[in-house]
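Quick one from the shared queue. A colleague (R.T.) flagged Saccharopine dehydrogenase as missing a structural entry in our internal table.

Convert sequence to structure tokens.
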Amino acid sequence: MGSNILIVGGKGIVGKTIHRILRSRNQEYNIYIGSRKEGATEYDVMIDVNKPETFKTVVNRNIDLIILAVNDQNDHILRFAIDNSIDYIDITKPTPDLVKALAVAETTQNINSRIVFSSGWMGGLVSGLMNTLSHNPENIREVKLYVYYSVKDLAGESSAHFMAENVARPFINYHSNRQISVRHFLNSEDFKFSFGIGKRQAYNFDVPDLYILNQIEKIPTVNVKMTYDSKLITWLLGTFQKLRIFDILSLKARRVIFGSSGNGDQSVFEIVIKDDQGEKKLSLQSKKGQAELTALAAVLHAEMLLHGDFKNKIYFAHQLHNPEKLYQSLAEYEGITIETKI
């Protein structure tokens, strides 16, 4: 059966990639592209997340699912989806915005659609893949996520803007369920990355998985570290933070620092867990980069939502999937390699 899907932010880097993957796998879907710019086809929808009056163009298209691929700080699209009983997947929110949006959804008395928050690292894949490492996921005591980020990778401006706006602000890590206030690019740790990358210094990094794994999945200790492909850039960012240089730089200057984007490179993340049987690791490499991986995650979530029998309520993306099937879907995708050490 065909479905009508609207990708808001569909002309951005990730939005266009979602459209390409979704179209190639599900030709029966009608896919509409939401953008602030007027389009040339019947599937182009002029919509501005900051102007709710533009949303009326959506109502008469019988949209079954909205995929949000653009920053919507005021949660206008979320409220619209709830008010109009439309399924919703959001892959865009940094931790503070995710917490705020979750509160908006939870305080709504009657939800008559499926509301999916998929804003963890690379479209919310970490929590699902983590559960493939343990026979008893409820016994996982600690999760560490290590991120390798290439400045040569193709990246959208939303993640760069988040880093520019938040690099000087503290965020929360979790240790034995205690909230520890930390700052980006401090507290370095040696980590040996897979796929020929080798040993790198990895620094504090804020992603929504910190909140999701501790507050939703009740894992006592959660930590995230990241490194850049350039050791020099990684060191410079750590030095800037240590000397509090980010505190005095203007937002415009910080956006210049974090705003570079290349033409494409690999994206790698590694999940290390500790449970009652010891330490285990999963390593994932996407040779097509982070935009491809994030878009694929959004498509997998959409397919589960549209084909599965899920009640009307709030979900986090990993709650839609059987972990082993999610693992298999990713492993079968061209350009993705997954290694485990159990």
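The two ends are 40 Å apart (CA to CA).
The mean pLDDT is 93.
Added to the table.
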